[in-house]
Every structure is written in C-alpha cells, then in structure tokens.
Amino acid sequence: MHESLTIGQLSTRSGVAPSALRYYERLGLIRAERTGGNQRRYARTELRRVAFIRISQQVGISLEEIREALDSLPASRTPTAEDWARLSAAWRERLTEKIRLMTKLRDDLDGCIGCGCLSLRRCTLYNPDDSLSGEGSGARLMLPRPAAEPAPAA
Questions:
Q1: Rounded-to-integer distance, Cα 48 and Cα 82, Å
Q2: Are strands 33-34 and 40-43 parallel, antiparallel or unpaired?
C-alpha cells in the first residue's frame, strides 16, 4: 500500500486510540490492509473517515448510521469533495433540527433544571400543555418527538 500508516501512526494523527481504530475496523467503518507479517496498514485517506466518525459521534450520530453513510462512499477510489458534500447533504435537515433543539434547550434550560421530570404543565421544551400526564408520572420522553409528529392526546 503506497504511503500507508501503521495503527500507531493513524492513532497519533487522528487522536483516536488504537483499540477504537480496531473497533471501527471490525464495524466496517475504516479499512486496513495487512502486511506479510499480518500488521495493519491504513491508507492516508482513512484519516478523513476517522475524522468524519469522530465529528459525527460528537453530534449524536450512531455508529450504525455512520457506517451506512460511509458505505455510500465509493470503495474503488478516494472520495472527492463532491462525495463528501453529497453525504453531508443527507444529514443537513437532521443536523439543523438538532441545532434548533439545542438552541431551545440552551435558551429554556433554566426553567427545567430544578424540576427534571419534564411533565409539568409549564414545560415548553418537551411537554407543552402537559400532554404526557396521562402516561404516568416522571420523565416520559428521552428525546423530543419530531416536529411533524404530534404529542399524544391527554
């Protein structure tokens, strides 16, 4: 493999532990070739894939979703800027919604910190008009419902 990296070099360059790189490889997120001595060698292009994995995880994208996205990239050549743009466009709406929710949380968090149950009538983040009270007490949702999905009737 021309200009390849050892697992230690990839780890140093990417800031990802070798154990995580081996895990990513097992999941099919990155690829390595083997030397005659069965040592891993990574193409330098794998650095971009590792960076994409790390950034995607930081914004809450699952490894399964990351793998599906990476599987859409061409295997026969190094992905181009257009390939990466196509991949990011597929997540644009989802990321925009996450940004909207994070902004709302940031702006309204002071009203929720003391309560924690997210089922009070005054909660405007997850349970407007206390629509989840019929489902029981305490926290009812871990994540907000998508904007198009109505909350259950009380």
A1: 14
A2: antiparallel
Rounded-to-integer distance, Cα 81 and Cα 103, Å: 29
DSSP element (H, E) containing 24: helix 18-27
Q: How far apart are CA 14 and CA 47, in angstroms?
A: 6
CA angle (100, 91, 83) in 5-degree steps: 145
Q: Taking CA 19 as the corner, what is the angle to CA 18 and CA 22, rounded to the nearest 5 degrees?
A: 85
- Cβ atoms of 47 and 83 within 8 Å: the answer is no
> What phi and psi values does residue 88 have, to the nearest 5 degrees?
-70, -30
How confident is the model over 65-80, as pLDDT tens digits?
Answer: 999 988 888 877 778 8
Give the predicted TM-score (pTM) of the model.
0.64
Contact predicate 66/53, CB 8 Å = yes
